[in-house]
Amino acid sequence: MTVKSLISETSPILHQKIKPVTQFDDQLKQLLLDLEDTMYHEEAAAVAAPQIGENQQVAIIDMELDGLLQLINPEIVSQSEETVTDLEGSVSLPDVYGEVTRNQMIVVKSNDKEGNEVELTAYDDVARMILHMMDHFDGVLFTERAERILTDEEMEEYFNHG
């Protein structure tokens, strides 16, 4: 098990364009394992390589019953016009939550760990998490997209009374 340290929101890598993966090798497979270990250790739903200081377009999302989704060099193929505003947070910004509007449905083209192209359609929370991870590849934090950030009192109310 290799749990990596999360970098702080002030780190430059979280604010820059991240490089696409060009080598589909054992180092990439190890990075995916490191991301998985780190995600579970942090009790997060997803984590992107820049969040552990790696300049590669790689992310992993826990889709619970549907297993793990590995995103490598993802690109949006199409998206719905319908949007949903919901609460978002990030392991890079502990205890910060904001309301963010995202497309309800997206079609994403990505690579698997062998370099093969795959395409998937995602809805609702999974679409939100993919878009959130892709923002990390563009150097954008969810707080830059948030319509508003919740106050401490609002967060306590939300998490205690859901």
Automatic annotation (TrEMBL):
- Parts of the chain that traverse the membrane: none
Q: Which InterPro entries match?
A: Peptide_deformylase (IPR023635), Peptide_deformylase_sf (IPR036821)
Read off the Pfam families from this record: Pep_deformylase
Top-rank taxon of the source lineage equals Bacteria
Family indicated by similarity: Belongs to the polypeptide deformylase family.
What is the name listed in the Swiss-Prot or TrEMBL entry for this protein?
A: Peptide deformylase-like
Q: Which organism does this record belong to?
A: Staphylococcus auricularis
